[in-house]
Every structure is written in C-alpha cells, then in structure tokens.
Amino acid sequence: MNMYQPVFDANYYYMNNPDLQSVVGLDSQKLFEHFYTCGMAEGRRASENFDVSVYKANNPDLAAVFGDDLKAYYTHYVQSGQLENRVCK
Fold it and tell me: What does R_g of the chain's alpha carbons equal in angstroms?
C-alpha cells in the first residue's frame, strides 16, 4: 500500500465513493484492496493529488503506450511520473 500513497488516500477514497461506504466500510486495508483490484481499472479517484483522467490527457506519450489500461497510469505515476513532475491533477 505504501507504494501507492501518492495516488491513494483511504479517507478520500471513502468519502468520495459513497457506493463503497456500506459495502467496504472505513477499513483502510479493505479500501485499498478495492482500489487496487477494481478502482484503478474503473478510473476512480482515490486522492486529492491525483486524477487519472487528467494524467492520461496531459501525457499523450503515455496514452500511446497504455491506451485505456488505467491501472498502468496509476502505476507509472507512482514509479516515475511523480519524479518527472508530470501533470496529474
């Protein structure tokens, strides 16, 4: 979970995804598991500091490589995009 800290905040994810509140609750590990297994592919925003739609739109070089694989954009950002100061929100 620590690797994804730049794109995932459990409280933000909980508050901004009301459909998960009754299903997953406020358990940060369960929220992260949902984000990792479903939320990234769905393009859910899980942090005030990262919006996958903005990241994709502002990085056409990545869009050419990743296409509609939204999970790849989150992973790219945490592994190198943030160090490259790429636009993400």
Answer: 13
- Phi and psi at residue 50, in whole multiples of 5°? -150, 130
Give the type of residue at 56: K
Q: Please state whether the predicted TM-score (pTM) of the whole model is above 0.90.
A: yes
Quick check: 1 pLDDT over 70?
no
Query: Does residue 2 surpass a pLDDT of 90?
Result: no
Sign of the torsion formed by the C-alpha atoms of 25, 30, 36 and 38: negative
Give strand pairing partners of 50: 47
Both tokens assigned to 3: 């690797």
d(CA 42, CA 64): 19
Closest CA to 75 of 64, 60, 30, 50: 50
pLDDT tens digits, 57-82:
999 999 999 999 999 999 999 999 99
